[in-house]
Design brief:
The chain has 304 residues and is of the alpha/beta class. The chain has 11 helices and 9 strands. The chain binds zinc ion.
């Protein structure tokens, strides 16, 4: 906080938030209901009961859409997401794609032998036919730190091909700036637009020059570990200000990577709530930044 006193701008923003109803509709582009890294059994009713009040809390704060980024083979559960969407009134999105990060531990065997074209066809089929009654609305992939290995490159190429077939945007869990730039190159070499690529976890790269380069190449740069406490708040605010200063806010996304129920841990393990982006971070933004980051950019990046 630069000063104890509120600036006029902050005051009018807070006053509007306090007195005007309802809050502006917003989108959280990267969150999780459940992630099953342990591949443990779980009771969907228990998860539902645990997560529903967390979603109710952000519905009250204006969350209209919640993009669930849990990939296939790590706990993607469209049936559970549908139930939560119906119960909370929040539009919840699921995804197609594969997660090659964590050294390929969560990749199915067929990835070794299939071509990028074959993998893309699987994902396009999921988009066209739906998964347990829910149509995936974006492609979620994950890669390891750069320089990228062959399997990582294959996944990215598949995502680029799937984008060309479906128009879906790619959100890629990315280890560092080198990996981000390599992926943007693969996407554009496949003749898919850079604007269909989202560099997920860009906050993990401390060198702002990568953020600038990726956004100038036309890709989206997503700072997505906002939390309730100071180090994360300060760093994400600095990232937003850097992008704003460089006139790249129109290529910037923010979110929290929050949640999530962890099967195999007592009571689903520790849960990072979804509301700090509204209660702690949004008040630090100017009204223009708020509008761009939480109201406009998610639609520009992922569609309506
Ligand atoms: Zn995530």
């Amino acid at each position: 906080m630069p000063s104890v006193e509120l600036t006029r701008r902050q005051f009018s923003f807070l006053a509007a938030a306090a007195f005007a109803a309802p809050p502006p509709p917003t989108v959280l582009v990267h969150e999780h209901v459940l992630v099953n890294f342990k591949r443990a059994d779980y009771d969907a009713n228990v998860v539902f009961t645990k997560v529903k009040p967390k979603l109710d809390a952000i519905a009250k704060l204006g969350c209209k859409r919640f993009q669930d980024c849990t990939p296939n083979f790590i706990g993607r559960d469209p049936k559970l997401l549908r139930r939560l969407a119906d119960a909370t009134g929040i539009e919840i999105w699921t995804n197609t794609g594969l997660y090659a990060a964590r050294n390929h531990e969560y990749l199915p065997d067929y990835v070794q032998t299939e071509t990028p074209e074959q993998l893309a066809a699987r994902w396009t089929a999921e988009y066209r036919n739906g998964v347990h009654g829910m149509k995936p609305r974006f492609i979620k992939i994950g890669v390891n730190r750069g320089p990228l290995g062959a399997l990582d490159k294959k996944i990215v190429k598949a995502a680029a091909l799937c984008t060309k077939d479906t128009g879906l945007t790619i959100a890629s869990h990315t280890g560092n700036g080198i990996a981000a730039m390599e992926q943007i190159a693969i996407v554009t070499e496949a003749k898919a637009p850079a604007a269909k690529f989202v560099w997920v976890h860009a906050d993990g790269e401390k060198d702002h020059s990568f953020h600038k380069k990726a956004a100038e190449a036309g890709a989206w740069v997503e700072f997505d570990h906002i939390g309730p406490a100071k180090p994360a708040l300060d760093w994400h605010l600095e990232c937003v200000r850097f992008m704003d200063t460089n006139k790249l806010l129109h290529r910037t996304l923010i979110s929290q990577d929050a949640g999530y129920y962890k099967p195999g841990e007592p009571d689903g393990g520790s849960f990072k709530d979804y509301d700090p982006i509204y209660t702690k971070f949004a008040p630090l933004l100017s009204p223009a930044q708020h509008k761009t980051l939480l109201q406009e950019n998610p639609y520009a990046a992922f569609g309506k």
